[in-house]
Amino acid sequence: DEALRFMSADESPVSRGTVLASYAGFLMDRVSGNQAPQIEKALAFATEAITIVEDNIPPEERVPFVKQTLAGAYLNRGNAIRMRARGDLDENLIAAIESYRIALDIARERKNDQLLGTILINMGNAWVDRFDLSRDKAYLRDAVYFFSEAADVLQEFPRERGYVLFHRALIATLTEHESDLDEALKDAGMAADILSPTGDSETFAAAKLAIGILLKLRSKQVDCDDLEKAAIELAEAHEIFARCGDSGRAILAVRHLAD
After folding, report:
1. For residue range 3-53, what is the model confidence (pLDDT) as tens digits?
2. Would you tell me how many other CB atoms lie within 10 Å of the CB of residue 24?
3. Cα 137 from chain centroid?
4. What are 78-108's pLDDT values in tens digits?
5. How far is CA 7 from the centre of its chain?
6. CB-neighbour burial class of residue 254 (10 A; exposed 0-12, middle 13-18, buried 19+)
7. Containing H/E element for 258?
């Protein structure tokens, strides 16, 4: 806030736009407690950053740094719209997806694989959110498309790639009769291997939970020892979630273990 008081849009549009976009990202990364005011503030900052850059710097004059700032602002704007509680939820998701689409167009031109992968992950998550609202499985196919592209571009960023592989594997738990469970298990297993040494215990546990669920689903299709393996994965997931204080997912792991 202090820096913004000394940066006018007329005198230093790039600097003000960069600070606004960065602050919006900072707020979205730390959403907690009473989330609504924080999300609305992030949305306002990201929107102002976009307006300042687009109104003051013609497309042909946007150097790579400016384009990256603009892509980041559209990404943060999409995240804020997707997470906000007010308004129609599906309309919010449609607006978020459009913001991600613009961010993708800019990031593809920049050839910034980490930024591109991050936008693709968020785009995939938005399509999963649309499925959660409507149960239309076509939205899951869209999610898989974006997660798969993210996995391809994030080859040099193992932690982010582990995250996207885990999310792609989760989709198979929602479409067991239409998905290749063996491929999904490979994704989830690779995600767990990647995430294990990162210190991201909750996401690692979520990958173990996905492995357990997928093994149980596969046990319905083939005669093998998947149920015993599933029990081990689910028990480990429960233990980690409980240790992290994530009681909701610890209970979920126990429920799958007891079924």
Report:
1. 555 555 555 788 888 889 998 998 888 766 678 889 999 999 999 999 999
2. 28
3. 19
4. 999 999 978 899 999 999 999 999 999 999 9
5. 32
6. middle
7. helix 247-258
Q: Residue type at 247?
A: S
Place of tokens 């980041």: 72
Listed in sequence order, the residues at least 6 apart from 7 whose beta carbon sits closer than 8 Å to its beta carbon are 15, 16, 19
Rounded Cα distance between 17 and 249, Å, is 39
The confidence score (pLDDT) of residue 7 equals 54
As a whole number of Å, the CA-based R_g of the chain is: 20
For 216, how many CA atoms within 13 A lie in the half-sphere containing its CB?
Answer: 19
Judge contact between 49 and 69, C-beta under 8 A.
Answer: yes
**What is the secondary structure of 133-163 as a DSSP string?**
HH--THHHHHHHHHHHHHHHHTTT-HHHHHH
More confident call, 16 vs 165: 165
Q: Calculate the CA 107 to chain-centre distance.
A: 16
C-alpha angle 54/126/208, rounded to 5°? 135
- Tokens 């989760």, residue located: 170
**Distance separating alpha carbons of residues 131 and 125, to the nearest angstrom:** 10
Judge whether 165 and 194 are in contact, CB under 8 Å: yes
CB neighbour list of residue 221: distance below 8 Å, 6 or more residues apart: 181
Instruction: Give residues with Cβ within 8 angstroms of 236, minimum separation 6.
Output: 205, 208
Q: Which two tokens stand for residue 126?
A: 């938005």
